[in-house]
Structure formats: C-alpha cells, structure tokens
Amino acid sequence: MREFSKGLLLLILALSGQLAYAQHYTLEKVVEVSRHGVRPPSPDNRQMIESGSGRRWADWLTADGELTGHGYTAAWLKSRYESQRYRQLDLLKQGCPGSGDVYIRASPLQRTRATAKALADAAFPGCEVTIHAEGQADPLFQYPEGKATPDAAEINRQQAIQAAGGSPAKQQQRLQPQIAALKQAVCQPEKPCPAFSQPWQLMVWSNGTIGIQGLDTLAAMAETIRLEYSENQPLSQVAFGHVRSAEDVARLLPLLSVKYDDSNDLPGPAQRGASVLMDQIAKALQQGLTLRQNAPPDVRWLLYVAHDINIAWLRTLLGFHWQQGLYPPGNIPPGGSLVFERWRNDRQQHFIRIYFQAQSLDQLRRLTPLSERQPPLVTEFHFPGCQQTTAGTLCPYHLTLQRIRQHIIPPTVPVSYPP
Predict the structure, then answer these.
(1) What angle do CA 86, 91, 93 make, to 5 degrees?
(2) pLDDT (tens digit, 9 = 90+) per residue, 247-306?
(3) Domain coordinates of the chain in residue numbers?
(4) Taking the domain 25-40+50-145+267-405, which CATH number applies?
(5) Which PROSITE patterns would you find in this protein's record (predicted)?
(6) Is 150-264 in CATH node 3.40.50.2000?
(7) CA-CA distance, 319 to 356, in Å (whole number)?
C-alpha cells in the first residue's frame, strides 16, 4: 500500500510538472482584421430598403454610412479590453507605443478610419497614434478591378447555385417563414412593399462577384434593423417598433446569413477578393522568424480596420465557421474582428491561434464595459493537430501557415506601408 501511494504521488507530481510546463506560452505577435463600428445604412442601402419597403426609414444624427458616436464608444470599449489583455500578456508595454509595437491600417472610408481612431485612442490614450489609409482605393481591402474571365464567372455562378440549394427561386420558397417575419416587421398593412414580392434572381456582375436581386434588399433591411438596435435607438424606431429585445432582433437576421452564404462566402469571389490581404497576414505572422519581401511592418500588433465583406472572404479561404450568442451563423457584427496570434513555448516552438470575437447585441446597445466577467463572444478556429492549452486553441505554426496560404492567388499588386 505504501509503495502504491508513493507511486501515485510520483505520477501526480510528474503530471503536474508537465501541466506547469505546458502553461508557459509567450504571445509574440497579433494580426487583427476588424470590421468598422456601428453606422447608419449607407446611402445605397437606404435607397434600396426604402424603395423596397415603400416607406421612409428613420434618419440618424450621423450622416449615412459614417461611424456614429455610439459606434466609436463601442469600438473604444472593445479596444480597451483587448489592449489590457495584451499588456497583461506582455505583448504591449504601458504608455505610448514605440515603432515596433503597433501599426494601424484602415480602409479609406470614414467609418473605417474613425473606427481605427477609436481603437487607437482606447489602446494608447493621449498618444495620437497614426492611422494609415491609402487614397480612395486600397488593394488590401478593395475587390480587384477588371472583368472576370468567362470561365471564372461561370465557376462563381455554379458556386452560388450550389449555395442556394439549386436556385434562388427554390431557396426563396424554402425561406418563406423567415421572409414573412421580416415582412411583418417592416411593411405597412395594405400598402405596397415590393421587395417581398420580387422573385430572387442570381446575378453575376462583370468582375465576377455575385448578387441575388431581391435577397440583397431583404438582407440590407435586416442589417439596418441590427444597426438600429446596436445604436441604442429607441425601440419605437427599431424595426418600426416591432422588436422589444435582442432576441426579437436576432429572429430577423437569418436572411443576412443567407445573403453571405450565396455571395460573399463563395470560394471564387473570396479568393479574388482576399488574396492580397491574406498574403499580407501570412507574411506578418512570419516576420521576425523568416525574412519576407513585400511584407508589412514587423510590429507586435498589426491592426487592419476593414469591412464585414473582407472578414467574410478571409474566413471562407480558411474554412472557418462560427455561430455566436443570439447571432445567426456566420454573422459579423459591427466591431467584430478576425484575430491571428503567434505564440511561442519554452521549447521555442511556435503556434498560431485564430479566433473571431465580437460584442453581443446587448453589449453593443448598452455599451457594456468588457471584462473577464463580461467578455466578448469568442469562437476559436481549429483543425486536426490543434491543441487546447492555457493560451487557447493553438495550432502548429507551419501547418497553419499552409492553411492560410493554400487558396491565395499570388498577388501582382505591391502593398506599401508608409511610416
């Protein structure tokens, strides 16, 4: 009995020693792609939803398409939480950043540049961190110009047909309960509401991207309702007074996921739309370990502020799927971000952790300070070979880089990073 107890004690000590060793991970680098924060509908979307519903939608205090003050604060809260974590993990030091600490690149639109400023203000208060943006078109975020080849356009069309389950018309019939729920929320009794009687039709645009006429309008309505709720608009103005809670809003969002399934989450458009950005992400994760040409600055936190479509393309190339909280599958809320972290253990082995994080509907609406007790929604990416650790789900460095790079079209457009 004594020998058995002694053996058991030695086994426990050995296992605890292994566990203690496994807990020693160092966060070396973060590459993050964030969606902009809460905004009113864009001018194009406003025209679409108002003509499709036959009624005026609420005006906002902020110009259409631009980041709101509420959206700024929600993004600020997210970045404060995030940067506090990075300081606890010794990725960032206290105070203002040095040249090797952070680089922020935003899509040229106001809502992305203003969101980038909110993120920088929270992470580095009083430091006036430079927000970099490239003119009116940035190859990192914009879909490449030029027509798609006939073969590429046909491949994208077939992918869209498959995603729709045979045809948009059949899909429209299958989704009548979801369509009816949205119609009840936005249409006036006994008055025209043309978007809900429009047959869904697949369109392949000249550049190869996909649109679903009819569905695109309904998805824009669902997105606008989500934005109204997230902005803390009076409930009398959210979905014209037809919602009372986040649960009610969530029930009106499924068509937004369907729109992404049928258009933005297709491999063909995603490959053409995200190859430049994904190539830069891969090179950034290798900085400091492998010398790369045409690479981003070698900084601890590389932050891109972009759009939901950029994140949709990236996640499609990865094969990453999520469903968070009350949101429908694949939803990309305002301020949500796709994060790539590079970790090192004490044996000098490297790993990559990939996850998507977002604030919930009520966290956005109520401007909830994020903390360990009130964390954002987080979904980690994993595949065979990844492991659960005290640092999260860590995946083998080289295998993950292969997965990141496997669908990239080699970029022909150089990307510059002004200091």
Answers:
(1) 90
(2) 999 999 999 999 999 999 999 999 999 999 999 999 999 999 987 788 999 999 999 999
(3) 25-40+50-145+267-405, 150-264
(4) 3.40.50.1240
(5) HIS_ACID_PHOSPHAT_1 (PS00616)
(6) no
(7) 13
